[in-house]
Description:
By secondary structure, the chain is α/β, with parallel strands linked by helices. It is 30% helix and 20% strand. The protein folds into two domains: 5-110 and 148-194, Rossmann fold, CATH 3.40.50; 197-366 and 391-411, Rossmann fold (3-Layer(aba) Sandwich).
Amino acid sequence: MLGEIIVVGAVADDPLANDIAHYMQQETEISDILAYKRFANTEFCPRFISDENDLEHIGHSLDGKTIILVSSCSGEYTRNARAMRSFLVACAAKDNGARKVILVEPDLFYSAQDRGPLPDEITDDDTLDDDDDGHEKVRSIQDYKKFDGQPFSARLYANLLKASGVDAVMTVHNHSANVRRVFRKVFNRQFYNLCPASIYANYLAHHAGICQQNPEHGLVICAPDKGAAPFAREVFKCLEHETTGLLYRARPSLLLMDKERSGERKVSIVTDPCSPTRLEDLVGRDVVVCDDMVRTGGTIAECCRHLKNAGVAKVIFVVTHFYSSQEVKENLHTDIIDDIITTNTLPNILNRDMQGRLRHKMLVLKIERWIVNALRHYFLNDSSEPYAPPYTVDVSRKNPRWKISQQLIGDL
């Protein structure tokens, strides 16, 4: 018998959906809740499975239920195919009586197209995030020209989700303030952009022995450019909190960098004048470079090279959304980066072939527990004790830290 909360995925074998269902203590397999039918003409039709002998509750099998729909980028399906599946699963839920549909999409689709060719009409203060400054960025005519002829895809995607029956959206580390404003307006503030800063800080503070070369010196938290500065500041703040009271752990420092572009993919790195830490302070210290995503790795490689040239002992790259492109593998497969810590917002990263030659330096913090904690807090009025720590660790045996991490996994 299913409870009032039902976890399903946009596809049957979504590993993130299955793990979230496990931590939600859902005993029934997702494939026994939702049938995924694909027709010969490639169209898709989901069906929530019900008792075939029940003729009294047709169209009401989900009355009063809350459906948690998980959509992540893994397996063979494209984002376009997954988006269409999400629309139809949400529609099926609402058409059969579901009270609420919550979409969990850790890497929110169509976020790159975060504005159109016309001035954005979403300027109301009540649509702002806590991390927005209350002022819309003044854009030049040349900036609007970049989007001439294009759709405002993020807004369309939000509206399509809403029209399909989605009531609330939860994502992870979406960097676009405009996307956040759009989704908060469309979903009447039922949009939650989870920041993983506390996860990284917890791992670095309590298990830094796995990755820190000189623990007698505090870690330096570094933003590679202005766009990453708010996130780096948040990681720094969380790390300060985590290390408070840990007598054996030195206090962290904050380094702010910036990039100057000299071509489409050529950048040079400089220290931001507002940085509280200078390059000359870094000799012999371990630096954690923080960013929300990596798609080519060019800027990160240049930043890390700049740090190593300044005498840094070790560089740890922390990134939330890791796109395992061939270009990323080439740019980051270098001794200027010693460790990579990421999450499984893109579950394919757990595949060793996707990690490629980087698997000897890559460690993945799996965030299903963290997402479940957030779902319970924001939506479910669940008084259960939160999972602590809110992550599990996945690391290849090719990584020299594998044996140490096995002890950590045992402790979790």
